[in-house]
Amino acid sequence: xxxxRALYGWLFLLSSxxxxxxxxxxxxxSLRITADSxxxxxxxxxxxxxxERISRRIDSVRRTQNRNDTALVNQLNKMEDYANxxxxxxxxxxxxxxxxxxxxxxxxxxxxxxxxxEGINSRWHEPNLRNMVATKVLLTEVLRHLESWxxxxxxxxxxxxxxxxxxxxxxxxxxxxxxPRDSALAQQYSSRIVDLLRRYxxxxxxxxxxxxxxxxxxxxxVRNLLxxxxxxxxxxxxxxxxxxxxxxxxxxxxxxxxxxxxxxNVISTSLGKAKLVLSYYxxxxxxxTMLALLVFALLWLVIRVMKTKLQKAHKELVLTQFMxxxxxxxxxxxxxxxxxxxxxxxxxVPMVFLQSLWILMWISITYLFWQDLNKEWQKxxxxxxxxxxWACLENLVLESSPFERWLMLLVNIGGMLLCIHMVxxxxxxxxxxxxxxxxxxxxxxxxxxxxxxxVAGAYTFGRAMAVGGYFNLVIGFMFFHGITLxxxxxxxxxxxxxxxxxxxxxxxLLVIKQRAEEFLPWVAWIGWFIVFAKNLNFYDVMIAxxxxxxxxxxxxxxxxxxFSSVVIFFIxxxxxxxxxxxxxxLLGGNNSTVSNIQKTRFSSLILVSKLGIISLGLIIAFxxxxxxxDKITIIIGALGVGIGFGLQNIVNNLVSGVILAxxxxxxxxxxxxxxxxxxxxxxxxxxxxxxxxxxxxEVIIPNGDLISQQVVNWTLSNNHRRVEIIVGVKYGxxxxxxxxxxxxxxxxxxxxxxxxxxxxxxxxxxNSSIDFRLLFWTDISLWVELKSEIMLGVDQAFRSAGxxxxxxxxxxxxxxxxxxxxx
Length: 823
Known about the structure:
By secondary structure, the chain is α+β, with helices and mostly antiparallel strands. The protein has 27 helices and ten strands. α5 packs antiparallel against α6 and α12 crosses α16. The chain is extended, with a radius of gyration of 47 Å. The protein starts with a helix and ends with a helix. 25% of the residues are buried.
């Protein structure tokens, strides 16, 4: 037993030494060789070897070594993952908000808040409505900046909290404290730990500093947010109170007015605040500003390209006669149109920004229409332009002063005298402008009220009337002159694209011009009314009243609804119908007269588009109005019952319309015969179609009749028609000469198709003539006129050749005269 233990210890020591020498990469092979050598070794006398126990010991050593290797590999992988996360954290922190820049911006914001508070609770002037409105615009822009910063800072703070948690978990990871016993592995492990610590320590410091700074910034932003919201609430209450007493006296009479500050101080303060509001608004509306500049650049480029092409085509006379203002300056035309559109792209627009746009529009329209005015009208327009500039400056002044009130009274009187002179010129020169008298009368009314209110002490009301009078007059004239520019742009597009058959077959620019003449005045009136409401400071009140009326919930039995949902439903249906008609119009599906109807390959697309747009609009209308789906199923069920009882014909026509769309037996512009009526298909609708007859009538034909009845389509596959003319000659005439003459008449006419060749056939021996049958092909739109030309040519040719065309005659022979007649 002693020998066995000695031998066993010796073998274990030998295997351990071999394991240490060979290394972890080859430990399994080494153990296998050692075991084989032990089994092959011959024992000495009296020695007994337990091979199974040695094998179990070798397996235990192998499992221990595998566990150590696996733990080391896991540690190294974890340290590599930690290093990658730290690198990503460094990149993320570099993209976070710049705290220094944010602190400077916050300081500027706080200065602006103090300036805005000065307009609310000023120590040196009484607050007025205009000052309150300007302050509200400024605070609204400040609030937008603060909310944006709060969102960014909150996101950064959340990221920093996640980083802090990760760093804490990394520091407390106990697995990283286990060091391998092997010296080589321990050296590799220590190098990885040193690299990880080199990344960890600066990142830990940076995250701590950022968390402190971001927390301070977030606190300041929240404080300023609450302050701004409180000030906006105060402004809303004050503005509501001022509008309630809008017509009351808020200042002493003009002869007793006193000012606390000089006019220069008032103007400098007002202009500084206006500049501040404008700068804030432009910075917050960068996207809309870039979009407006892009629209201007593209429109200018398009107008220049079209003008250049027409000039190269020697159409200078067309440019000067039909589009003189666009031809005068492409840049100013594009500027005026783009500025008119730009007012719709900007939201919550301050008056200083709007007035800047209006001044640019006035300069553009003055240059474009200057040559259309005689010297007297030029003086009047320049006079109103100068008074308009005064109104823009007056609208920015935030405090009243005696000088300002006396100047405003003089401007009121001068403007009314100038308007009286302008009306006399209008009547004397018989100017055609139906909107002229309306704007002039409104201007006189506003300026008269402004003068009376200013003298009596109703300063706020008088100032709004004075400024609004000039704005309404000049902007109204500019809007309605802008209609002329839009019409000229449409004519320019028509002249540019008139030779483009592909475009002209899709878009009828002349019809667009006619439609534009109908709806553009309405657009101008709506735009002018919005300006009018803003000038009198009741636009917000009007919007609030309308919004409250529409959103208030009402009950009708068990049904709860609001007028907004009803309005949304019907507006969506109406818009889908308008869009469907507009798409049909663009695809050539709407022509006013039968002579203008042209065949289009888009007729089926028009019908499918109508069906799709109206169906989609109906679905959107139900969804937008908030009607539950169970109510829709009830409506569908009711429609099913209605179809079963009395709507079979309507459904039949609807289904027939779908069949017409896909089968295409007829298309818009086809010349067809239906029920004995001949005409052209003007429109293919969802339920019925329109047939425009050559007599000028429009026949409404249900789509079911077009499917079930026999329809003759003269232009289904081509536009050619065979024409037949019967011509008779006198008995005894030379038929060969007559046939030659008839063939020559047909071949000499260019409108007669030469393929297939026209035919002249002897038709029949009639009672008083020998009839020839003329058969020839021509375009279906020319056959009526061509038939008349051929008949005239045949008559003239026969007269020249001495061939007579007989008329029906009958000889009567009387065999016996009655006695009464003999007497």
